[in-house]
Design brief:
52% of the residues lie in helices and 18% in strands. It is of the alpha+beta class. It has four domains: 140 residues, no CATH class; 49 residues; 58 residues; 127 residues, 2-Layer Sandwich (Heat Shock Protein 90), CATH 3.30.565.10. Strands 1-2-5-4-3 form a five-stranded antiparallel β-sheet, with helices on both faces. Strands 7-9-10-12-11 form a five-stranded mixed β-sheet, covered by helices on one side. α1 runs antiparallel to α3, α5 runs antiparallel to α7 and α7 packs across α9. The longest helix has 43 residues. It is rod-shaped.
Length: 417
């Protein structure tokens, strides 16, 4: 399994490594600069002392604490033992620091410089610096190397502490943002976005909210589409299956031709019903703001056509149907208008067992009322069922004036286009 990196851990480790490398590099640079400073300061003095006259083999000279000799063996014994195995090069200062341990102050320091005089003779300038015993009774101040080491260690630690503090300040709202996005739901979408302290995180939270809200809306539309489809398509699907089975049992003879035509007509009408329902559901499930182009239609002819197409729903029912229209032409989104009227008429026909159904159109106003003498359904679902909800949503989308009233065994809906 692939291990996924933590952004916070990656940032901390990368920063610590970077600071450690910089701290070590600066510490080494400080030590190198200290060594170069000693060489520069002592080198000039020792170079000038090396030109003193009166120096010969076996006759070294001591000036200002520096021993000047023409041969290495003419220098003090301690200096000879310190540098006897060194490959001495001209104009190069050799140093030897004697101390009890690495962090202890030096007990003695030996310095040696080999130069060439103008006459080509060798000169060895050396010095031995021994810490006085009285110095041990004074407060001991750490040598520069110790301070370099201390700062080299403390600097990354101080930086690390500051980094952890900053990370904790930043990680806390980031963690809160993660938990908020993880637990985002419909109720959260209705509430204002919490304050995550930083402008960038608040902007990200609004983006997350917008994206998740869109995803929830799409999921809600899909669930609504499936719920509506499974509820409303059951009847026409059952009609198709039942009549298909019946068609298989009817012999193909001249005597049964009319019966076969009636069965095929029922199947065709069920197909039209499913087509109309599917158009409605798909239209409402769209997330685009595109509206179909307006068309000029005769509203009265559209109503009469839909009533005729859906008239099969009231066959063999004790229903009194009244359709009253008047010629009226208007420019409107034809498909949504057709869907609304078809849904209202269809549901009125379907949910009325016996009674009266009236469809009245005056100008742009359409009123559909059904009354049932048999209470076979819950009052909440009387008359219009899913078609009522679909019609209401379309009317709201197109800003049509929709109104419905429910009573005992009676339901009335009106819409003004």
């Amino acid at each position: 399994m692939k291990i996924r990196l933590s952004l916070r851990l990656y940032f901390i480790i990368a920063t610590i490594l970077l600071v450690s490398v910089i701290s070590i590099a600066l510490s080494l640079l400080s030590i190198e600069n200290l060594s170069r400073g000693i060489n520069f300061g002592a080198g000039q003095t020792m170079g000038r002392i090396g030109t003193v006259e009166g120096v010969s083999d076996g006759q070294p000279v001591e000036i200002l604490g520096f021993h000047v000799a023409s041969r290495l063996q003419d220098l003090p014994e301690a200096i000879q033992k310190t540098f006897e195995h060194k490959n001495l090069e001209a104009n190069t200062i050799e140093k030897k620091i004697i101390r009890s341990h690495f962090l202890a102050p030096p007990r003695s320091v030996y310095v040696l410089l080999k130069i060439k005089t103008k006459t080509g003779e060798d000169r060895f300038i050396a010095a031995e610096r021994v810490m006085p015993k009285s110095f041990s009774r004074k407060p001991v101040h750490a040598p520069p190397s110790v301070w370099i080491l201390v700062f080299g260690v403390l600097a990354p630690l101080i930086f690390l502490a500051g980094l952890i503090f900053i990370i904790s300040r930043v990680a806390s709202p980031v963690e809160a943002l993660k938990n908020w996005a993880k637990n985002f739901n419909v109720d959260t979408a209705k509430k204002p976005v919490p304050d995550f302290q930083y402008k960038e995180l608040n902007s990200l939270a609004h983006i997350v909210r917008s994206s998740l809200a869109s995803a929830h809306e799409a999921l809600d539309r899909e669930q609504k589409f499936l719920a509506h489809a499974s509820h409303e398509l059951r009847t026409p699907i059952s009609v198709v299956r039942a009549n298909t089975e019946l068609l298989k049992k009817i012999p193909n003879t001249a005597e049964t031709e009319q019966k076969r035509i009636e069965v095929l007509d029922r199947i065709e009408r069920a197909g039209k019903t499913m087509t109309s329902l599917t158009e409605t559901l798909l239209w409402l499930s769209r997330d685009s703001g595109d509206f179909p182009a307006d068309q000029t239609i005769r509203l009265d002819l559209l109503i009469e056509e839909l009533v005729s197409d859906l008239n099969y729903l009231v066959d063999k029912k004790e229903i009194e149907l009244m359709v009253k229209t008047e010629p009226y032409e208007l420019t409107i989104a034809a498909v949504p208008c057709r869907i609304v009227i078809a849904n209202l008429v269809r549901n009125a026909f379907q949910h009325t067992i016996s009674g009266k159904v009236s469809v009245v159109q005056q100008g742009t106003n359409v009123c559909i009322m059904n009354s049932s003498q048999e209470d076979l359904m819950d009052e909440a679902d009387l008359g219009f069922g899913l078609g009522l909800r679909l019609s209401r949503e379309l009317a709201q989308k197109y800003h049509w004036q929709y109104e419905d009233k429910a009573g005992l065994g009676r339901y009335e809906a009106s819409i003004r286009f």
